[in-house]
Amino acid sequence: MAERNGRDRRTEILKTVGELFLSEGYAGASMSRIASAVGGSKATLYAYFSGKEELFRSYMEMRVRQEAAELFVFPETEESPAATLTRFGVRFLEAATRDDSRALLRLLYAESPRFPELGKIFYELCLLNGRKRLTEYLRRLENEGALRLPDPELAAEQFLALCQAKISMELMLCVRRQISPEEGETVVRAAVSTFLAAYARPRNQGDSC
């Protein structure tokens, strides 16, 4: 029971910390401010975390576990690559353009020059982790003869970039506040078509149409 309560308290702290980081920035969210927000003392925080950097890393790890469990999942079925990539691309674009995701990116852009460890944490836990799972799926398609990929990791990065196209920058700069699901799907379908045009293995002449 004590162990479970400890895990619950740790999760509660991380959720509060995440909200503070996003609203006040990394530098603005002091350990004293965090302790006040979670309703404890700095001694309480240090009982769970060694400092603010570990708090941020733990918060990012929690987010990655929650989102990657649903986002970067690819079926083992015989579904067409186009269908799987389209469904994944829509999920990815929705996750990348959520208000909290954009707030996190703005935090990283603003704070990483002064606190480069933040950018490293995000890069390792989020970008590399997601790209690795997508790369594994693309390699599977290559092994099955569906794709021809000179560099699977680069191809994964290219697909993620295609799915965001111009939308991500417009939202980050507040040129636009949101996109419709229909527009997002249109962008993703164009990304899938472009990606497969570049990497789909050509049919042999004897293959059926």
Word description of this protein:
The chain is mostly helical and 209 residues long. The chain folds into two domains: 1-56, Orthogonal Bundle (Arc Repressor Mutant, subunit A); 72-199, Tetracycline Repressor, domain 2 (Orthogonal Bundle). It contains ten helices and no strands. Helix 4 (52-71) packs parallel to helix 7.
Give a concise summary.
The chain has 209 residues and is an all-alpha fold. It has helices at residues 2-28, 31-38, 42-48, 52-71, 81-96, 99-111, 116-143, 152-164, 167-172, 181-199. Helix 1 packs across helix 2 (31-38) and helix 4 runs parallel beside helix 7 (116-143).
Question: Features of this protein?
Answer:
single chain, Tetracycline Repressor, domain 2, mainly alpha, Arc Repressor Mutant, subunit A, 10 helices, elongated, 2 domains, 209 residues
What is the alpha-carbon Rg in Å?
Answer: 20 Å
SSE order: HHHHHHHHHH
Low-confidence segments, ≥5 residues, pLDDT <50? none
Number of helices: 10
Give the name of the CATH superfamily of the largest domain: Tetracycline Repressor, domain 2
CATH class of the largest domain: Mainly Alpha
CATH fold call of the largest domain: Tetracycline Repressor, domain 2
Question: Percent helix among the residues?
Answer: over 70%
Q: Compute the separation of the termini in Å.
A: 62 Å
CATH architecture of the largest domain: Orthogonal Bundle
Number of strands: 0
Q: How would you describe the shape?
A: elongated
Strand residue content: under 5%
Number of self-contained structural domains = 2
Structural class: mainly alpha
